[in-house]
Specification:
alpha+beta
Length: 487
């Protein structure tokens, strides 16, 4: 059931809930924004919110540059420092996938993008845990929550518990700083010198994006980047914007998000794809032989998938859908997820159960599509909260009679890969827990049909890390990772 309310700041919100558990908008249900972030509106004297227009790409770029200046001023405040701290986003390079992931290169970091109208089977894929606002904000006195916390004892506003942060009231300020920094990262900041070329281009830096811990999807990401949400056309007026809203998307919120418990909006998983590159596929209605709306599977993991410890797996979610490369018969089945967090034996078992279910669902969809197309491949993207040797990762890579899976990134220690490097009270951890997996049918692999990973995005070297994640040089505790493919 869905009901509409106002949050504590007078913003419209939607509350999704079970009739048996709903008490008020302040109780912990699925909370979603039903408004657009006011910072996205161009200056206007019109008081009618339906007449407000979204920023042009030039105005978005100005906001991003303004944030860069603020961070630079804060990091280098005082003027007496002998060494100037670099606050630009980490420089990232497209490199060959079998190399050192921290290698620097003097070569151009920009892949050749297809500018013609001819079909092109090359594309890029990115995976990014964006660090939810509701899991990283500061004290309520500085950053008041839109809803009263369900239990104030579990929310002390310690900026996500990160112990290494300098000037956390600045770098973790989502409303003023971090949302623009996240947008810059998603648009390819650090990979390309000027994200204006992305904002004004029909070819975004990343053709497919999986985003986790996203709790400002409806208010910020969707109005800026999305033209269609699932099967629904966006209603936001962007007629004054140069941004052509390159992406379509599907978003699935967690049914019991910790962000909601802490007084914020629910976080979830989003899957975005370049609308100029890919088209969705409709599932045929076998009874009428007519096509339906785009084939999308999303939701929580099965209730039956419980470990003997009794840990429920249903609060983690997934999105799966098939995409066809426009102008070709080539199909990708893409799955995105965020698996159970925290290291312990019971949670590791839950992650394994979830990963196995995700793989089974993705493979089942792909097998159905092979009946109508011979050229079908698979992508599985996500924050697995598990290292490469864990069962949840190994079960994806396990080859069977039908499908063969690989990691886009080499996972050996000699490659110097990491996807998160942060410190909390337990100490600093540097780990690989985010993945881009790709799968090809075993029977067509020898025929050259399927995906070829040509490049991956480098990670910052240890010399560049004068502070851990997040910080002045990066807005999340996870790095965005990316790979380039040819189908």
């Amino acid at each position: 059931m869905q009901q509409h309310f106002l949050d504590r700041f007078g913003n419209a919100c939607r509350i999704l809930h079970d009739n048996n558990t709903f008490t008020s908008p302040n109780s912990c249900n699925i909370r979603l924004q039903d408004y657009v972030d006011r910072d996205l509106f161009a200056n206007t004297c019109d008081s009618n919110p339906h007449h407000l227009r979204i920023f042009s790409s030039a105005e978005v770029w100005n906001r991003i540059k303004h944030v860069e200046d603020l961070l630079d001023d804060t990091a280098n405040d005082g003027g007496g420092a002998n060494v100037h701290k670099d606050t630009s986003l980490f420089r990232r390079y497209w490199i060959e996938r079998d190399g050192d992931m921290q290698r620097r290169t003097s070569k151009s970091s920009t892949l050749r993008r297809n500018k013609s109208n001819k079909p092109n089977s090359s594309f890029t894929v990115a995976q990014f845990n964006s660090l939810a606002r509701g899991l990283s904000s500061g004290p309520n006195a500085l950053f008041p929550t839109p809803f009263p916390p369900e239990d104030r004892r579990i929310w002390d506003g310690t900026y996500g518990g990160f112990t290494h942060l300098s000037a956390p009231e600045v770098i973790m300020d989502f409303g003023r700083i971090r949302k623009w920094r996240l947008l810059q990262t998603i648009l390819g900041g650090g990979v390309t010198d000027d994200v204006r070329t992305i904002l004004d281009d029909t070819n975004p830096q990343f053709d497919i994006l999986a985003l986790e811990e996203l709790d400002e999807y409806y208010s910020f990401i969707r109005p800026l980047l999305i033209q269609r949400d699932g099967a629904h056309q966006m209603q936001v007026d962007t007629s004054s914007s140069n941004n052509e809203n390159n992406y379509n998307a599907v978003f699935e919120p967690k049914p019991n998000s910790p962000c909601a418990k802490f007084g914020w909006y629910s976080d979830g998983v989003a899957l975005l794809w370049n609308a100029n590159k890919f088209e969705t596929i409709a599932r045929a209605d076998t009874s009428t032989k007519q096509t339906s709306e785009p084939w999308i599977e999303k939701g929580s993991f099965s209730e039956s998938a419980k470990d003997t410890s009794g840990i429920d797996t249903r609060n983690q979610v997934f999105v799966i859908l098939p995409l066809r490369i426009i102008g070709t018969a080539k199909i990708l089945v893409v799955g995105a997820t965020h698996l159970k967090a925290k290291k312990c034996t019971a949670n590791a078992r839950v992650r394994y159960i979830q990963a196995l279910e995700l793989k089974q669902r993705v493979v089942q969809m792909a097998n159905q599509l092979t009946k109508q197309c011979n050229d079908v491949s698979i992508l599985i993207l996500g924050d697995f909260n598990a290292e490469p040797t864990d069962q949840s990762v190994q079960c994806i890579l396990e080859k069977d009679e039908t499908w063969s899976f690989q990691s886009a990134y080499p996972l050996g220690p000699e490659n110097n890969l990491y996807t998160t490097w942060k410190a909390r009270k337990e100490g600093a951890v540097c780990r690989i827990i985010d993945y881009i997996f790709y799968g090809t049918r075993s029977e067509t692999e020898s025929e050259g049909i399927g995906l070829e990973c040509t490049n991956v995005l480098s990670v910052p070297s240890k010399d560049e890390m004068y502070e851990l994640l997040p910080g002045f040089r990066y807005p999340s505790d996870h790095l965005l990772i990316a790979a380039a493919f040819h189908h």
